[in-house]
Amino acid sequence: MASLKLKIVVLDTHDVEVINVADASTYPDGFLVLNPTLVATAPGFPPVNLTPFNVGGNNMLTSDMLGITAADVVDSLPDGIYQFSYSITPSSTAFTNISIMRVDRLQEKFDHVFMSLDFMVCDSEIKTQAKVQLNTIYLLIQGSIAAANECAIIEANQLYDKASMMLDRMIAKNCGCTGNNFITNFP
User: Fold this and answer.
1) Residues 6+ apart with CB under 8 A from 31
2) What are the sequence ranges of the domains in the chain?
3) For the stretch 83-121, what's the b/e string if a residue is b when 16 or more beta carbons lie within 10 angstroms of its beta carbon?
4) In whole angstroms, what is the distance from residue 121 CA to residue 116 CA?
5) Looking at domain 8-102, which CATH architecture does it have?
6) What is the DSSP letter of 145?
7) Which residue of 50, 61, 137, 183 is 20 to 30 Å from 74, comparing CA positions?
8) What gap in Å lies between CA 67 and CA 40, rounded to an integer?
9) What is the pLDDT along the chain (187 residues), one digit of tens a residue?
10) What is the 3-state secondary structure (H, E, C) of 77-141?
11) How big, in percent rounded to 5, are the helix, strand and coil portions of the chain?
12) Is 21 helix (H, G, I), strand (E, B) or coil?
């Protein structure tokens, strides 16, 4: 017989307008879940109580549901730290909390820069420098996610900001390639 263990996970949607919070909990056989509640806090916005919560399934959240935009107005979700708290009754001790770093907008920008670089045209030094810069940016993005997973919020935001700044530089300089391999200039 399974014991009660609440667990929620955020699944990647590859969509800047949707976040998917799934219930990955285990419930004892015959257990009746009453009042499943998800409290979501988007970066820079107050917590929102989302009821009902789809027990055992996916919960697709959009900007209007999270209180970011007006009702029935769906827009891109901001990147940053999202916090979720899931609880049920009748057990007052049945709850779980998670925090995640959402980077979908930054990833979209990364993808745009990546696809705009014509690796077949650049000479080998420029191509190598662009690859080094993109690898560095990718590592910064992954570092931001890892830091958020470990509740290192300041470091997560710093890594995110550095990756965003490097992408902006690559866009502004039409890839920012100089041919000087492995040299990355930071302000």
Assistant:
1) 4
2) 8-102, 104-172
3) ebbbbbeeeeebeeeebbbbbbebbebbeebbeebeeee
4) 12
5) Sandwich (2.60)
6) H
7) 137
8) 10
9) 578 889 999 999 989 999 999 999 998 888 888 889 899 999 999 999 998 789 999 999 999 999 999 999 999 999 999 999 999 876 656 788 999 999 999 999 999 888 877 665 656 666 778 888 999 999 999 999 999 888 888 999 999 999 999 999 988 875 544 544 444 444 4
10) CCCEEEEEEEEEECCCCCEEEEEEEECHHHHHHHHHHHHHCCCCCCCHHHHHHHHHHHHHHHHHH
11) 30, 25, 45
12) strand
User: What tokens appear for 17 in the block?
Assistant: 């307008």
Residue with tokens 């999202």: 82
